[in-house]
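Supplementary Methods S3. Input chains for the assembly prediction are listed below.
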Amino acid sequence: MKKFVSVALAATMALSLVACGGSASSAASSAANSTASSAASTASGEGGTIKVGVLANTSGDYAIYGNAVKNGVMLYINEINGKGGINGKQIEVFDYDDKGDPTEAVTAFNRLVDDGVTAVIGSVLTGATIAVADESYAIGMPQITASATAAGVTVLDPEDPESEVRTNVFRSCFIDPFQGEKMAEYASQELGAKTAAVIFETGNDYSEGLKNAFVDKCKELGIEVVSEEAYTKGDVDFKAQMTTITSKNPDVVFCPNYYQDDGNIVKQARAAGYTGTFMGGDGWGGVAGYASAEELEGSVYCSGYAAGTDDVKTFETAYKDAYGEDVPNMFAPLGYDAAMLMCNALSAADDQGLETGSDDYKAAVIDAMKSTDGLKGVTGTYKFDQYNNPIKSAAIMKLEGGKEVFSEMF
Amino acid sequence: MAFLSTLFSQVINGLQSGSIYALVALGYSMVYGIIMLLNFAHGDIIMVGAYVVWMSTANFGFHPIVSILLAVVVSTTLGVVIEKVAYAPLRSSPRLSLLITAIGISFLLENGFQLIFGAGAKVVPDFLTGPSVHLGSATISFSAIVTIVVTVLMMAGLTFLVQKTKLGKAMRAVSEDMGAAQLMGINLNTTISFTFAMGSALAGVASVLYLSSYGQASPTMGSMLGLKAFVAAVLGGIGSLPGAMLGGFVIGMAEALVSAAGLSVWKDGVVFAILIIVLLVKPTGLMGKPMTEKV
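Predicted structure tokens for the full assembly:
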């Protein structure tokens, strides 16, 4: 009995939160929301609305990511609604703050289910996203995350290649190993590398994930990995490792770490006499200030988002107009792409004339998402692999004259 | 031949990082020798010194010599102030209280600097530049030469100071028996402050050498450096100055040679394994005096 009361109370609170949800968003989006909901109420007479849930950690430690994702998502949804919605149906957004916490995220997800949403965009942090994915998989709710990079989001057991896939869960971002594979391919095809070395941070999932993928792919492509060096968090002395690497003189050194360490590693490698090319993952963003222009010259890294290029200009302008600030990081465009992928799938499902919110409708959304092919977003062109991870090109950034400049899509 | 030149480069790498450990270990050993305190804030004094160099070179554009002097002066003052404010009032308390205070000071400095300057690393432009030396196919960088030479000079100067001067004699007397030294007319406060000043000045020098090799200052840079220097001090025999020096070089060499053997994953593991082995086999360290517990 007690349990029933608490569930009822929770439901009431959830309802009251929905009411606040819209007004709590930033000025630009709430203005857009109110036009959207008024349009929705008129539209509901004929076509009804399509209810979509958005989960993001808009408060707490990593709110900077959550807010960026939510802003990106809302930007796209407001654009779609402004153009008349999907088949005349407006998209009605229910958004909750999960604070990046797995328990809160599951509670929020259950509220969304009670709200009767057809699809969920979120969550943002890996832990919360996996928690929600478990729930959504059980009931076949279409879900897409813009930012959770761990392999375990879309598969039940990331260690097992035969593992069961959460068929309903997708993402618009790279997974960690993807960058390592991309850079190995780039080394082989574009740089003609025959030998490579790696230096990575032990005990860091990101660094080790990229490194393992790179080394495996190198073996496949016939690049000989002559040296695998490691360091621990907080180390600043890489001279011994770089002397070892220099003595083996590999064509490229893959350095999948964060920019401060990368700068230091490059500096000390040059001092040790290494003259080859450095490569890295998106952790390199911002490296230019941490080693001199000559030391970094020619280094390449991959990024999810090529800021400042022609392709993303429209997005960057729209973002600035809507929120009055520059695109803060790659999570905003990834959020935008996640919303685009979801709306695209919703539209394909809606064309079949199914009843919104029904199980058939959800299944149709998942099928449509799965068969996405060649959809062009801000951060690349989308298609999903067997594990529901996007196959898209990465932006290769190159260090030239002390600046990080966009080189090509690869 | 290529193997030999690589090995030679690794030995130089080891000596260079070992020199910095040695300078920091000297500070640990001196303070421990005189008031039996493991001054865990010592690593953070180096951090403060490094920020002083960063402020004065990158922000105010001072001449390198001026920034070096500033770093040494600020470190020295900070060391003495910490002693007066945090340690002196606890001189008669149990040693555990002192140790915990030292850890508290360390956290205070780290988090204070994180609050003021942010958690990110600050880049210090190269300020000690000069020609590198080529020996066959091996290169010795200018910063390596400076680091090793300065450390050896510091060590020689310190030995002279402790063995030959009146203040040094007072320091040795206080470390032998604080009460008796006081009865002989030695000013305890001056001697202890002087010891802290010397140790912190060495930390200031270490911070300059650290920046000339690694070029980045960050709020937590002192913690790992301090821990490894502590291992060096224990290995050499805590309280013994030549021991601290030897320990620093051994730790630096061990790290470099472990990496050279292709086992860089185990680098830190080896350093702390050395600590455990020393504590198990010879707790007084390589050059420490045999300990007789006073009752």
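The two ends of chain A are 59 Å apart (CA to CA). Chain A touches chain B at residues 202, 227, 229-232, 234-237, 239-241, 243-244, 247, 260, 263-264, 267-268, 271-273, 289-290 (CB under 8 Å).
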